[in-house]
Amino acid sequence: MPSFAAFLQSPPLTLTAHEALSGVFGSISLASWIFLLVPQLVENYKQGSADGISLAFLTVWFIGDITNLIGAIWAGLVPTVIALAVYFCFADLILISQCLYYNLLNARKARRRSTRSTFGEAAEEPLLGRRDSNIGLPGSHRRTSSGASGRRRDSVTRNGLPSIEEEEGGHKEAIKNALSIVGVCMIGAAGWAIAWKTGVWQPTPVEEDNGGVEVALGAQILGYASAICYLGARIPQIIKNQRDRSCEGLSLLFFMLSLLGNATYGAGILFHSVEKEYFLINLPWLIGSLGTMVEDATIFIQFRVFGNGEQSSAIA
Q1: Is 54 within 8 Å of 236 (Cβ atoms)?
Q2: What distance in Å separates the CA atoms of residue 124 and residue 209, rounded to the nearest whole number?
């Protein structure tokens, strides 16, 4: 039996550049989706809140993953694709459950604080003292907001420009995100190389893809329904960011991984073949992946304009 090292030096099939790029891009996309939700889960945990992310966004996205799973089963796709679709659904449920937990927990805390302050003020403060405590103080409601928001505003200078500490924190965050993206790309590329060398992954001839393979109509309909859900999911988040004029509580890396996953997924399909029949079969998934990149770019612009609400708070 030849050694494992010798086996790695003799791959089972030769590859064209297009096949190799298709495989690498597909593997990077897969790595992006596997790690996608981790940054937002960590962000919610650090904040102790899920106020920044729209539940409507997650719910519509979850519906998209459900229809994607049913469509994959209906179309009789390979088991790995179905297993990944199941993984995506479970990952969605974990993030949705975390958001619901923090929303309920913080709502209960807010009710307790409201009850305590109402009865405490009624028993201890004079009526006149309560009435004029905030009279003639513009912005008094902002000043009595949470200490965390107050500390964030303290980190911004009077002319609305970030302080040195704020800029350093932004640079560190940018470096961390860039290294994370590079790491995911390396993991995806290494995973593909290992899969190819060991024979787990092999290029599929284009003729087999276009050789009369017919996808069930119901599966195609579910594919388009999934694409519509993916396209519509980000709209509630964009509206929420615009309404709050803040992206506080959102993980930028979460959307960067989403953009990377969608871009490499579409590239993997297109590098494999641009034949008309193959293109039309994969059109729903191309629409769902490449179309959402425009919406991700919109959210990136909102991050740039609004940030965490610090600059707008300081200027207001």
Answers
A1: yes
A2: 77
Q: What is the largest CA-CA distance in the chain?
A: 92
pLDDT in tens, 21-43: 888 998 999 999 999 999 999 99
Please, which residues have CB within 8 angstroms of residue 238's CB and are 6 or more apart in sequence? Answer: 295, 298, 299, 302
Q: Which helix (H) or strand (E) holds 239?
A: helix 217-244
Question: How confident is the model at residue 314, as a pLDDT?
Answer: 38
Distance CA 35, CA 183 (A): 11
Residues 6+ apart with CB under 8 A from 278: 206, 209, 210, 272
Whether residue 192 contacts residue 22, with contact meaning beta carbons closer than 8 Å, is answered with: no
CA 109 to the chain's CA centroid: 28
Please say whether the beta carbons of 35 and 185 come within 8 A: no
Specify the pLDDT at position 76: 72
Helix (H) or strand (E) holding 132, with range, is: none
* Two structure tokens written together for 78: 């390979």
Residue whose entry in the numeric block shows the structure tokens 């425009």: 294
Residue 185 pairs in a beta bridge with none
Q: Look up the pTM and report it.
A: 0.75
Q: What's residue 158's pLDDT?
A: 46
Q: Element (H or E) spanning 108, and its range?
A: helix 79-124
**Sites in the chain below the pLDDT cut of 70:** 1-14, 77-78, 80, 118-169, 204-215, 308-316
Q: What percent of the chain has pLDDT over 90?
A: 36
DSSP string, 44-95: HHHHT--TTS-HHHHHHHHHHHHHHHHHHHHHT--HHHHHHHHHHHHHHHHH
Alpha-carbon distance 221 to 218, whole Å? 5
CA 166 to chain CA centroid, Å, is 24
Query: Which DSSP string do the residues of 218-229 spell out, in sequence order?
Result: HHHHHHHHHHHH
For 152-183, the pLDDT digits (tens) are: 444 444 455 556 666 666 788 889 999 999 99
